[in-house]
């Protein structure tokens, strides 16, 4: 059971605490679950600690961000609802965060590996122009091998009972989580094992956390980033769809 969902956080070794720590970046996202007692206690305790140590402004700001997310409702969408919501905007659609219980209907990972693996800058995690060995944000990169790292960069189609939305962006840590292996491990697999890995995820009901933004340069006009993708619990998925069905058929007295 998920207590806190975190996406795009920076993981570093803290010499003072002698352990690994996670800090929120500009793109970081935290979701706390109101229905989970452990999530409630953890968030409440963090807020109290920050209030007592309010002189530590960075800690306080980070915890306030988490607490604000705690009160954010996480909407569950269908593909049809996502398309409709995008059409309702006036060209200034705010990012939409949510969950979809669907399945990946296109996953091309057992052909040319060079099409799904990219180099990223170790500093900002953005895709690197390999020909110029340069990052759009950090500029020219040193020849040091540690300046870049390889990551997945996969386009997938996501479908459910209401339709299909193409070209979802499954990359970096989210792709490793979904596939259950690192880039290094993936490159050692035979073609048969890559195909078997594909069919482990393809057309299987999954719980997908996503971020949707308007992007005129994107082929569909919508850019959807997969933040997390795991095989869904059948009971949880069924209950979510039943609740959506009841709301859609509800008629106010």
From TrEMBL:
- For the keyword Transport, the answer is no
Which Gene Ontology terms describe the biological processes this protein takes part in? resolution of meiotic recombination intermediates
Q: Which InterPro entries match?
A: MEIOB, NA-bd_OB-fold
Against SUPFAM superfamilies, the record matches this protein to: Nucleic acid-binding proteins
Q: Which GO terms describe its molecular function?
A: single-stranded DNA 3'-5' DNA exonuclease activity; single-stranded DNA binding
Query: Which superkingdom, per the lineage?
Result: Eukaryota
Provide the transmembrane region boundaries.
46-71
Recorded coiled-coil stretches: none
Q: Which UniProt keywords apply?
A: Membrane, Transmembrane, Transmembrane helix
Designated name of the protein: Meiosis specific with OB-fold
> Which source organism?
Nothoprocta perdicaria
